[in-house]
Specification:
With about 900 residues, this protein is α+β, with helices and mostly antiparallel strands. Among the domains are: about 95-255, C8orf32 fold (Roll); about 305-330 and about 705-710 and about 725-880, no CATH class; about 400-445 and about 500-680, no CATH class. Helices cover about 30% and strands about 25% of the residues. It contains 22 helices and 37 strands. A hairpin with a 4-residue loop joins strand 13 (about 240-245) and strand 14 (about 250). The chain starts with a strand and ends with a helix.
């Protein structure tokens, strides 16, 4: 992946009359040891007649000796060359064992050969001080040289100096400023004083504008640029001459093209020679342009190519609209940390010390772009065998109609900040929240850690082991035991509010009631999860299975009415308006909620509620009226966490969240929402960031058009980079490879009913057939792992009879036209699997097409899993367009 660059350099001398020229020496041809490959070179001298003789000086530099036959009023020296700018690693060398650590000495023969490069000149007090300081350094030779080069860059401020000649090293250090040739000559003398052979180098410096701005420091030139430059080379046994550029503090790279290397600067000048006495002026012109650019990970397509791709995407959009396809496309791109390529969490482990922090930064950045009024939700995700706890899942939910779900960002607590919130703040918040929901605060229950369990656990510890420093094998249990005894067994863990939305007297109301636990005190189950996951629900009064008040998820294929506006959400409860809630929240703050409030509420409830919801069940009586879901408020690590219970509808969820935000604003207590997220609803949108082995996975919201997909993908890649998340890594031999987590492409519709995969069963059949007839598609975009044991095996890998079974499945869909939605799923559910029967690990994953298992499996989605993570957003978009 190289760039071919054409460099043009013209120097013109114009005289006041025709003058005689003596022999001139031109040192403007790249030296033999130039690491950057020179593709073409030309030197033009004019306008008069002359002879040119190419030769090499004692240092091996190419010289053009010019002899002029006649007087001239003008002299032009013009150089054109084309070089291949391929990335060069300046540290790609080995040192002889004797030279690996500084100080070292050259052997006798080498010392004699390097004698001109070891002679110190013009060493004054400052130069000797610098030599003495670095002479005392010991350690790896390359480390000492990097430190010296960096110190030289910091000690001398770069300035353009038009005066001829080179400053003495002492003068350069005294002024603390100089041109590149001054810094280079100063560094040459310091290196020689340290006993290292060094030489002065003049050459071309080519700097190209970076494709991507640097996150760690200066990005370099803002335009493609070239100029004459000077730097230093030091001789290291085993490596040869190594370039050090004290102007930038870096080692010489592919942009440094040496022209002349010499023990002294005067024998490295670009042009030397004389003329008879006259008045003269000099013109100098240098330019660089790109003549060829190979595609690379930072710029896979030129602007012209990308413009044509974008135009094609919009043409396809129009064609799909005309054909009423209703296609949406999303994805699951993955990222790794650019600062820790070797860490376990960025190679094999699903979780680690920095993943959640980086994911939190990323989800907040994405919220700013996609959902300024979105709700942050810190929930739990997948739980795989062998893992101590379910993996976390950070989500941002927002309404498609643009109405905000959460209006004040400051009321969402920062997970990295300790606000000092504890049990007192949790109690105040719980009381105000109950009032805001129209529920009597007396139904709040204080939750405690199970004292008897932890006392039993303590008694089982060895007698000579401190509880705070126990050596239990389970890390989480060890940390939890220490934390419980540190805070005390009688400390309130949090507050529980039994909560359910019921229809009473024709109106939906939030209801609560007593739990009638076997113990008078609510003891949480032992563990380290949020308290909402550790409620002793099995201790609630018994209920028959057929009487259990299940929370039935919404049917994803149902028709949904528009969601109410935010003001309507605040008033949807029917028992009080927003203004009354303000007053009651204020009374809760003051601890003076009048008793008549509860009496007023009871008066509005039906007789059924007042007698049944509060009734204590008898022995062996099926207690179907008991509220079995609960909202929890728990202080953890100085922050308030609100655990949300499952609710029946999205409208209920929006109302509950609106009340939580209102109370948080009134009390000025920011909170973090966790627990049960909103169920799938086509009126809501969500983007999630979750951990996966070795990567962070982003579940990007689907896009219904090419322009929307471009925006979503481009924003994600850019914001991930600003969070220092990378899209590629390198193998031991230097080859690029993806993150290892894939970039699965998800296709479907805005609603399950709109999905072209369900509306046209032959579409999935056609895709499977096309992929089967073109096996290269299974491997062209895949990562390093392919075959039957990979994450996305082809349907014919490892199962020889699968093709015959596919033919049978295809025949079941013949002539179906608009088939019933479950028919296409049933036809392929037992075929699009891996060798173990897992539908998730398949090239065509239909987990969420129309699964009979759950509502979240009936979304009309197809996941294409054989796509590795591309390093650039445009490469990812091109894959989407091809598909």
């Amino acid at each position: 992946m190289s760039i071919h660059v054409a460099l043009h350099h013209r120097t013109s001398y114009e005289y006041d009359r025709m003058v005689e020229h003596g022999p001139h020496v031109v040192r403007l041809r790249p030296a033999a040891h130039c690491r950057t490959r020179v593709l073409s070179y030309s030197l033009k001298v004019g306008p008069g007649d002359h002879f040119i003789n190419w030769q090499q000086d004692p240092q091996g530099n190419y010289l053009a000796r010019l002899v002029f036959n006649e007087p001239m009023a003008r002299l032009d020296v013009e150089v054109d060359l084309v070089v291949e700018m391929a990335v060069h690693n300046p540290f790609d060398f080995f040192l002889e064992e004797a030279a690996e650590n500084y100080p070292f000495s050259y052997d006798a023969d080498l010392q004699r050969e390097l004698a001109p490069f070891l002679e110190v000149e013009d060493a004054g007090r400052r130069v000797n001080h610098c030599i003495g300081y670095f002479k005392k350094k010991t350690g790896r030779t390359i480390d000492v040289l990097v430190e010296l080069n960096s110190a030289a860059q910091k000690a001398v401020e770069y300035k353009i100096r038009m005066e001829p000649g080179v400053q003495t090293p002492e003068e350069t250090l005294e002024k603390a400023s100089g041109s590149c040739r001054d810094s280079a000559w100063m560094l040459v003398n310091v290196l020689r004083g340290m006993g290292l052979a060094a030489r002065f180098v003049s050459g071309y410096l080519i700097q190209l504008k970076a494709d991507v701005e640097s996150l760690d420091g200066p990005s370099g030139s803002e335009v493609d640029f070239t100029d004459l430059h000077a730097w230093t080379e030091v001789y290291l046994p085993g490596a040869g001459w190594i370039g050090l550029d004290p102007t930038s503090g870096l080692l010489a790279g592919e942009g440094h093209l040496p022209l002349a290397c010499s023990p002294r600067p005067n024998s490295a000048a670009a042009v030397t020679g004389g003329t008879e006495a006259c008045e003269s002026t000099m013109e100098h012109e240098m330019s660089v342009r790109r003549v060829y650019e190979s595609p690379r990970t930072t710029l896979p397509y030129t602007d012209d190519e990308w413009s044509r791709i974008g135009k094609m995407g919009r043409v396809i959009d129009e064609e799909m609209k005309r054909m009423d396809v209703r296609l949406t496309m999303g994805g699951e791109p993955t990222f790794i940390s650019m600062d820790d390529f070797d860490g376990a969490e960025w190679n094999t482990a699903a979780q680690g010390p920095t993943k959640r922090k980086l994911s939190d930064q990323l989800i907040k950045r994405l919220r700013g772009h996609f959902a300024p009024g979105g709700m942050m939700f810190y929930g739990q995700g997948k739980w795989y065998p062998g893992e101590e706890l379910p993996r976390w899942s950070l989500g941002c939910y927002w309404r498609k109609d643009g109405v905000p779900m959460w209006t004040d960002d400051s009321l969402t607590a920062d997970e990295t900040k300790d606000y000092g919130h504890g049990p007192e703040e949790a109690e105040r918040f719980s009381n105000a929240l109950a009032e805001g929901l129209g529920i009597e605060p007396k139904w709040l229950i204080k939750g405690y850690e199970d004292a008897f369990y932890y006392m039993w656990k303590e008694r089982r510890l060895p007698s000579n082991v401190d509880v705070q420093k126990s050596n239990l094998k389970n890390r989480l249990e060890r940390e939890k035991l220490a934390k419980v005894f540190d805070t005390g067994l009688n400390t309130v863990t949090g507050h529980v509010l039994p909560l359910k939305k019921l229809t009473i007297s024709g109106k939906k109301k939030w209801t609560s009631g007593p739990w009638f636990l076997r113990d008078d005190t609510l003891f949480l189950l032992p563990g380290d999860s949020p308290m909402g996951y550790r409620l002793p629900l099995d201790s609630l009064p018994w209920v028959k299975k057929e009487d259990f008040p299940w929370t039935i998820p919404q049917d994803p294929t149902a028709d949904y009415a528009p969601l109410p506006g935010r003001d309507a959400v605040m008033q949807i409860r029917g028992h009080e308006d927003a203004g009354r809630m303000d007053a009651r929240a204020g009374q809760a703050l003051a601890g003076a909620v009048p008793r008549s409030a509860h009496e007023d509420l009871l008066a509005k409830l039906s007789q059924v509620e007042s007698t049944l919801l509060l009734k204590e069940p008898g022995q062996q009586e099926s207690a179907s009226w008991i509220t079995r879901s609960a909202l929890c408020v728990e202080p953890r690590n100085g922050r308030l966490y609100v655990f949300l219970p499952p609710v029946d509808t999205t409208e209920d969820f929006l109302e509950m969240v609106a009340v939580i935000e209102k109370v948080a604003g009134d009390l000025k207590l920011p909170v973090i929402l966790e627990g049960t997220p909103p169920a799938f609803d086509p009126r809501l949108e969500v983007v999630k960031v979750t951990p996966d082995p070795g990567v962070i996975e982003v579940n990007l919201q689907p896009a219904a058009s090419w322009d929307e997909l471009v925006r979503n993908t481009t924003v994600l890649y850019e914001e991930a980079r600003l969070c220092r998340l990378a899209t590629e890594k390198f193998m031991v031999d230097g080859r690029h490879c993806g993150t290892g987590g894939g970039n699965h492409i998800i296709i479907g519709g805005e609603t399950p009913s709109d999905s072209p995969l369900l509306r046209r069963p032959d579409l999935l059949r056609s895709m499977i057939t096309f992929w089967n007839h073109h096996p290269s598609l299974s491997y062209l975009f895949s990562g390093l792992f392919v075959g039957p044991t990979s994450q996305a095996p082809r349907i014919d890998e490892g199962r020889n009879d699968s093709i015959h079974e596919l033919e049978v499945a295809f025949r079941t869909l013949e002539g179906e036209g608009n088939a019933l939605p479950w028919k296409v799923d049933r036809a392929f559910r037992n075929l699009l699997i891996d060798a173990t029967g897992n539908t998730h690990r398949a090239e065509f994953c239909i987990d969420k097409l129309y699964s009979p298992d759950s509502a979240t499996g009936r979304l009309g989605l197809l996941e294409m899993r054989n796509f590795e993570m591309p390093p650039h957003s445009r490469m990812s978009l091109a894959q989407h367009l091809v598909l």
